Fold this protein.
Amino acid sequence: MKEPIELINSHMPISMRSHFVPALINSVSWVNDTVSREKYLKEHGNVARAAVGYLRNVAAQVALKSVMQYHFPGIDCREMSNRNHSYYYYEFTSSDFTFTISQVVRNTSMPQDALYRQLLMTRAQPTLFNFDDYVDESHYFLLTFNVENNGLVSARLGIPAEYNGKVKWKNNKCINLIKEPHLTPAELPAAVIDEPRVEFLNAMSEVLKDEK
């Protein structure tokens, strides 16, 4: 089998990956704008900070969806949820790979355990019965990001794998998207920047209005 970086380059080349960092930077700015304009968040200290973490995840999902639908229409974007429907996310899927995005607390961290990621990991792995005949047909890639001091500090893409009950990057290899060449937010078209931003800010204002 190919090494993780080789697999990523084969299925998600830099021409695709170069859009991820500016999309994430935009998503962080959307949340910062929401916080700055919403008196409700400013007045609720620690409770608001917990909400901001949730908003960042939502914004990142929306931003990546906008990029993928605009630049890579061959990638299917499906809204999914966990088993008890308490968490919603997007799966970006082609004929030979799926990737999801998750926020992490530190740049070296992996996301909290989740059944849906475990299932995606399992489906993408060869079994004891077909390992010899295994063909690289389906892969699961994970994009993680971390925000500190209201700025994007980490974005990594790799293949998650379980080692002794803990999920780590397969073969300890992943791509640091911030360090490799990528576009700037200004280089993304308005359909990817402005329209999703307005929709996100308006939607969050409505949500917060209902919470008051």
Residues 126-136 have pLDDT under 50 and may be disordered. The chain has one domain: 4-211. Helices lie at 4-11, 14-17, 20-37, 39-42, 45-71, 115-123, 190-211. The first strand starts at residue 76 and ends at 81.
